[in-house]
Every structure is written in C-alpha cells, then in structure tokens.
Amino acid sequence: MADAHHDNLIITGLKNAHAMEEQALSIMRPQVKRIENYPEVARRLELHITETEGQIARLDELLDRFGSDNSALKDMALSFTGSMAAMGHTMAGDEILKNSFANFAFEHFEIAAYKSLLVLAELGGHGQATAALQANLKEEESMARWLDDNLRGVTTRFAALKESGETAKV
Fold it and tell me: Source organism's superkingdom (predicted)?
C-alpha cells in the first residue's frame, strides 16, 4: 500500500537517478567527441547516450506521476562532477583505458541504483513504476556487459597503437 513515507523514498530515489543519468551524459558526451582510434567504443557510447536520454525521459514521466520533478540542483552538481571526471582523464596517456574503467564502474553504480529503486517501488506499492525502472536497468546491464566483453579488445588495441608508435588517442 502506498503511503507518504514510501512516496518520499521513491521520489528521492527517482530524483537521484535523474541526476545520475545527467551525470552519465556529462561523462559520455565529451568522451565520444574525443575518440579517434576506437570506432566501436564511439558507436556504443553514442547508442548509450541515446538510451540514457530515453532513461531520463522515463524518469521524468515517473516523477510527473508522483507530482514531482527532477532536482535541478542535483542534476547540475552531478553533471559538473561528471564533466570534471571526464576532463581529468583527457590528460592521461591511457585515457581510453581510464574511461573504460570509469564507465564500467559507473554502469554498475547505475545498476545498483535501479535495483534499489525497484525494491522501493515494490515496498511502496508502486507497480506502475516497475516497467520503466526495469527498462532502464536492462539498458544499464547491457552497457556494463558490453564494456566487460570489450575491455580486452580495447586494451589490446591501445597496447598495439602504443607499441607501433602511433597515437593511442582515444
């Protein structure tokens, strides 16, 4: 049964997830712009950017159903920290690897957040939120799997480019 306590919990979680997805965009967009030698990574990031935009739309819909909206302050703060993290990796000689590690970790953070939100939806009797949250979770799990499956190839390509004296630029 829905009550004010559970409503507040899920609304807070949805606002946090919204800010988290804005942060994800602020991390991925600069990364994809800098990629030169890893077209498969660029294509997958572009796809996930589109997915993330859809996730934000789903979260907006859910927040609207609860009579709430996203937290502009949280969105702005996390977007800023995401941009700073992405920019910090640009100075590294192994930027593509650092980005791969950070993206893998962030995807798992998002997976945990959506799993928690699904529990809150269940506890609060908010079954109407389940489909959207499951869709977001599925996309995050797919991206995490892709990163895991492709880390060896990215690392191998990076090492080969470095060994041949070519730029290993992302």
Answer: Bacteria
What pLDDT digit, counting tens, does each position of 72-113 carry?
554 455 454 544 455 454 455 789 999 999 999 999 999 999
d(CA 52, CA 109): 14
User: How many whole angstroms separate alpha carbon 51 and alpha carbon 57?
Assistant: 10
CA 80 → CA 7, 12, 27, 55, 83, distances in Å? 28, 20, 9, 19, 5
Residues contacting 49, CB < 8 A, separation 6+:
25, 28, 29, 32
**pLDDT on residue 165:** 79
End-to-end CA distance of the chain: 50
The residues spanned by each domain of the chain are 4-164
Which residues of the chain fall below pLDDT 70? 1-2, 70-92, 167-170
CATH of domain 4-164: 1.20.1260.10
On whether the CB atoms of residues 15 and 68 are closer than 8 A, the answer is yes
